[in-house]
Amino acid sequence: MGSYSAVEVIAAAVSGAHYPAPDLDKLDMKGSMLGEEQPTTSGMENGHQCPFVIGVAGGASSGKSAVCKMIIDQLCDHRVVVVTQESFYYGLSDEELVHVNDYNFDHPDAFDMDLLLSCMENLKHGKSVDIPNYNFKTHKSVPRARKVNPSDVIILEGILIFHDSRVRDLMNMKIFVDTDDDVRLARRILRDLEKGRDIIPVLDQYSKFVKPAFEDFILPTKKYADIIIPRGADNSVAIDLIVQHIRTKLGQNDLCKIHPNLYVIQTTYQIRGMHTIIRDAATTTHDFIFYADRLIRLVVEHGLGHLPFKEKQVITPTGSVYTGVDFSKSLCGISVIRSGESMENALRACCKGIKIGKILIHREGDDGKQLIYHNLPKDIAKRHVLLLDPILGTGNSAVQAISLLLEKGVQESNIIFLNLISAPQGVHVVSKRFPRVKIVTSEIELGLNDECRVIPGMGEFGDRYFGTDDYQSSTPFFGDAKDRVRLL
Ligand SMILES: O=P(O)(O)OC[C@H]1O[C@H](OP(=O)(O)OP(=O)(O)O)[C@H](O)[C@@H]1O
Ligand SMILES: O=c1cc[nH]c(=O)[nH]1
Q1: ipTM score of the complex?
Q2: Residue 95's CB: how many other CB atoms inside 10 A?
Q3: Please, what's the b/e burial string for 8-30 (b: 16 or more CB within 10 A of its CB; e: otherwise)?
Q4: Are 313 and 322 in contact (CB under 8 A)?
Q5: How far is ligand 2, taken at its centre, from the CA of residue 453, in Å?
Q6: What separation in Å is there between the alpha carbon of 339 and the centre of ligand 2?
Q7: Residue nearest to atom 9 of ligand 1 (CA)
Q8: Contact at 8 Å (CB) between 111 and 88?
Q9: C-alpha–C-alpha distance, residues 231 and 480, integer Å
Q10: CA 35 centroid distance within chain
Q11: Which residues does 190 contact at the CB level (< 8 Å), separation at least 6?
């Protein structure tokens, strides 16, 4: 195999992967495009962000998984999931097991590509899938499939993932890891010897199956690649460029760019970890409250950062002058009963003595929401309002609550809506109606399901936080959302 210059790294260049931003005027309440067939490669589909699908192909031991790991590490602020083609190996029959050394694991027929295609299609369309669990010792698929949820980025990795045009067509970006044959063979020998195999069968398998399959089936698919990476994970320049491109493509769908009034707090692995706990249907009420409270505190602190401030100087104990700021004291919190009440303590902890009013909205059927109770500070019109509600779903509740605040004389630009998770549909609805209201959230969701529940979501927040969830730990479904009445 020849060597490459640095320029050839991306000589195949990034394809014009079609990944446009949604046409907001055509979005209905559930985020689907009115009267239009949904494009399968666009950024928005049926109310959820359409994942960006990357294929990483290349010969065995070329460094595909190391490339995937580097991409994942650099995209740490996005949800990324990896699906490997090896999970889709057909299990061997008893007869094939007897002659396992004659079985060609590098041939396209060794993989169940129909199943792989259907899993990838479902993921691309925002549905969770069960990925088979193939055991390399028994050469059978074993029970306990891996549940994979749709994500911002899906990486499909494997030697022959470009072989099937149906699978190729699902990809927004195709990468071929092009590592020298000798390097791949040396890695293979080392890896197999570490597993306790003898050198002779390893070399036999290589010359009988691995090398011919590479030449006959894998190498010919290199022409489909948008990007060819020589030297695999050692090629950090190529990987940096790839990650930059992915970020640009994801950024075109970035709700914060579409809606400048939306603020998503900067994520960290701590924050992702807390979200992982509160989203887990098996989490106990005690842990749910603990981690929801931690996240709420972060959102509240971030929200307070949007209050206006005046410069202020103080004298420090060393007698020096510290030039800082003094933020507006004329504020109040308004919680949307009942889930919003879970945010009151964090606000009180940050703003001593703050007044907190309440709004109760009664949900009746699908035709929007009605307000049934409110208790607001009398001078609310003069205040900055921190509106508290952990979930922004369709946006109906938020629209009702904000409309009431405006009726009471609050200025639109003085409202900061604090929540834990926002569905893109709710963000569109609130921002379109009230573009000057700031929305501060900790994560943007994929979308809404048919019951208008946020997905992936965290179920019924109020039930989980206040311990009224009868279904806890046994089912992730939390009742029919459409006809519930919230209780005081
Ligand atoms: O954006 P939307 O589609 O209107 O959904 C969001 C609303 O749903 C939740 O309340 P819920 O109805 O679950 O009541 P609860 O707070 O009493 O549990 C949440 O607290 C919001 O108020
Ligand atoms: O998914 C959802 C939607 C609204 N309210 C919730 O508590 N959860």
Answers
A1: 0.93
A2: 7
A3: ebbebebeebebeebeeeebebe
A4: yes
A5: 5
A6: 9
A7: 391
A8: yes
A9: 53
A10: 27
A11: none
Residue nearest to atom 21 of ligand 1 (CA): 391
Query: Residues near 62 by Cβ (< 8 Å), separated by ≥ 6?
Result: 177, 178, 179, 184, 232
- Our answer on whether the CB atom of 457 is closer than 6 Å to any ligand 2 atom is yes
Cross-strand bridge partners of residue 35? none
- Find, among 134, 17, 144, 21, the residue nearest to 87 by Cα: 134
Q: What is the pTM of this model?
A: 0.62
Kindly give the distance from the C-alpha atom of residue 69 to the centroid of ligand 2, in angstroms, as a whole number. Answer: 33
Q: What percent of the chain has pLDDT over 90?
A: 69
Mutation probe of ligand 2 site: the residue of 453, 458, 483 with most atoms within 8 A of C-beta: 453
Which three-class secondary structure state does DSSP give residue 311? Answer: strand
For every residue of 440-484, DSSP letters joined together read: EESEE-SEE-TTS-EES--S-HHHHHHT--TTTTT-S----STT-
- CB of residue 486 inside a 6 A radius of ligand 1: yes
Measured on CA atoms in the order 222, 225, 230, 231, is the torsion positive or negative?
negative
C-beta separation of 50 from 216 below 8 A: no
Sign of the CA dihedral with 106 first, then 109, 115, and 119 last: positive
Distance 461 CA to ligand 2 centre (A): 6
Mind listing the pLDDT tens digit for each residue in 88-99?
Answer: 999 999 999 999
Residue with tokens 């998984």: 65
Q: Return the structure tokens found at 63.
A: 């460094």
Rounded CA gap, 287 and 422, in Å?
22
pLDDT digits (tens, 9 = 90+) for 313-344: 999 999 999 999 998 889 999 999 999 999 99
